[in-house]
């Protein structure tokens, strides 16, 4: 990781602001009606954080299923899309890293909403520290069923074939398959697997190879935690289904916190050795 890396803090943002990270809203799950309160809560967080934001980094699975046809996109999520567009219209960058539930993109979120799509993984630097951002679904050992599913979803030819399915059928089928995948993984969302966790195995492999970043920020697992592995700080962002958690990197320090109407108590927090500008 000795190559020149992009700056995590946008160069055209005013100094003294914060960077905000979140993932796994799974908007639309399990139904639009049940998802609506969570989407409104997420929008309230966006609007509150915007007052102090240099940028937002949304690390995947913002939607439970998202597929863009040439002339149509999934129905619903108007308040969420509007809030994201309002941020970008106000000049606050919103970076989006697709997850395994919202991989099929053709440019609508960039062209119409203003989101800036990131590769996965994304490496960046800020004040001499290296940050590794990833939704995380491709890291570590994967069962053959997951490998096959990701290959299908990331295959451009199969994506084009899927667009030949009528949207009423294609979107219904996609939501059904996404729901089954989410339900299959849900029992693990409450369990820390210890040394068997793929993110620990991945970071440890980076440490062993001598090319580890200083920070690793992951989504996908729905667990909310911060821990130190060797010289690396590892963050799992949690989710917006049960935990409503986010990471804030501020000029003087950082915190992983739960967004609530009452005053927030950070789940984990720390200070920088040297304050950021």
The structure class reads alpha/beta
Give the fraction of residues assigned to helices: 25-40%
Q: Tell me the number of strands.
A: 12
Main pleated-sheet profile: 7 strands, mixed
Head-to-tail CA distance between termini: 23 Å
Number of helices in the DSSP assignment: 7
Shape: globular
Helix and strand run: EHEHEHEEEHHHHEEEEEE
Uncertain segments: none
Report strand %.
15-25%
* Spatial arrangement of strands, main beta sheet: 4-3-2-1-10-11-12
Mean pLDDT: 85
Radius of gyration: 18 Å
Description of the molecule:
Helices cover 31% and strands 21% of the residues. The chain has a domain at 18-118 and 143-191 and 237-271. Strand 8 (224-229) and strand 9 form a beta hairpin. It has seven helices and twelve strands. The strands form two sheets. A seven-stranded mixed beta sheet has the order 4-3-2-1-10-11-12. The protein has a five-stranded mixed beta sheet with strand order 5-6-7-9-8, covered by helices on one side. Helix 1 packs parallel to helix 2 (78-89). The protein has 277 residues and is an alpha/beta fold. It is globular.
């Amino acid at each position: 990781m000795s190559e020149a890396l992009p700056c995590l803090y946008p160069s055209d943002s005013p100094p003294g602001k914060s960077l905000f990270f979140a993932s796994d809203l799974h908007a639309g799950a399990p139904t639009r009606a049940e998802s609506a309160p969570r989407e409104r809560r997420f929008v309230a967080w966006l609007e509150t954080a915007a007052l102090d934001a240099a940028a937002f980094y949304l690390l995947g699975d913002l939607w439970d299923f998202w597929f863009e046809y040439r002339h149509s996109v999934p129905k619903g999520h108007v308040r969420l899309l509007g809030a994201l567009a309002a941020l970008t219209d106000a000049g606050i960058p919103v970076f989006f890293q697709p997850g395994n539930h919202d991989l099929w993109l053709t440019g609508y979120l960039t062209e119409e909403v203003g989101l800036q799509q990131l590769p996965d993984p994304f490496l960046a630097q800020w004040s001499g520290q290296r940050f590794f951002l990833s939704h995380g679904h491709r890291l570590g050992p994967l069962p053959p069923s997951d490998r096959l599913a990701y290959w299908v979803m990331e295959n451009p030819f199969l994506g084009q074939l899927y667009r030949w399915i009528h949207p009423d059928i294609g979107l219904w089928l996609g939501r059904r398959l996404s729901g089954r995948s989410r339900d299959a993984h849900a029992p693990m969302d409450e369990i820390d697997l210890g040394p068997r966790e793929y993110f620990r195995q991945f970071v440890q492999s980076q440490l062993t190879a001598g090319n580890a970043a200083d920070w690793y920020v992951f989504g996908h697992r729905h667990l909310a935690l911060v821990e130190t592995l060797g010289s690396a700080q590892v963050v799992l962002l949690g989710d917006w289904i049960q935990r409503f958690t986010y990471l804030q990197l501020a000029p003087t320090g950082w915190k992983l916190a739960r967004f609530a109407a009452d005053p927030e108590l950070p789940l984990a927090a720390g200070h920088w050795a040297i304050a950021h500008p």
